[in-house]
Amino acid sequence: MADLDPSEHTIDELEAQLDEIDDPDALERIRDAETSGEDRIGAVEAIDDRLDSVSNGENGENGENGENGDTDDEGGSDATDTGGGGVGIVDVRNQVRRVAADLIGRPLDGITEVRADDDGWYTTVEVIERNSIPDTQDILGRYEIDLDADANVTGYRRLRRYRRGDTDDETIE
To answer: What CA–CA distance (Å, rounded) separates 113 from 93?
Structure first.
């Protein structure tokens, strides 16, 4: 397979293409092309994630091809542990970083919450809905993004809009 030009793809398209690449050297070349080109954070993270999974698979560290029954996902302490079909909190955070701006249509300002429950994952993000000068007058939107247990987005909704500098209605616990 010829080396992939990351600048020709959106981050979501790039992730799908990366899943087909098992050569660490090819992934390194793709990463170099991205960092010397557009240098998109989400794209670099996607390439790094794929590179990590390919490298771990070659070294036999994850035991992806053989179940040994020694992993207990429910009691595991590793936040990125994905063995047994589940995803960790870091994986969810990275997925939200990759999709939030495209999903909502506005630049991501930050992720303020990631939590799991029986139905999957819930994240709260803030996006810049209107830039202002000074930036304390930016209008931010707080959104909840819902993901299933495998970190696939299942829905989102806006919770509220507010000025960046407004702290009156923030609940401090």
So the answer is: 9
pTM listed for this prediction: 0.48
- 157-160-166 Cα angle (round to 5): 150
Q: Which residue has the tokens 């398209």?
A: 13
How far is residue 34 from each of residues 54, 138, 144, 147, measured CA to CA in Å?
19, 30, 30, 28
Q: Pinpoint the alpha helices (H) of 23-111.
A: 24-36, 41-59, 89-104
pLDDT of the chain, 173 residues: tens digit per residue: 467 888 888 887 888 888 888 888 888 888 888 888 877 877 888 888 888 888 776 544 443 333 343 433 444 434 444 444 567 888 888 888 888 888 888 888 888 899 988 888 999 988 888 887 887 788 888 999 998 888 888 899 999 988 887 766 554 33
Residues in the chain: 173
The answer to whether 165 touches 136, Cβ cutoff 8 Å, is yes
Measured CA angle at 125 (ends 90, 149), to 5 deg: 45
Distance of CA 104 to the CA centre of its chain: 14
CA separation for the pair 40, 35 (Å, rounded): 7
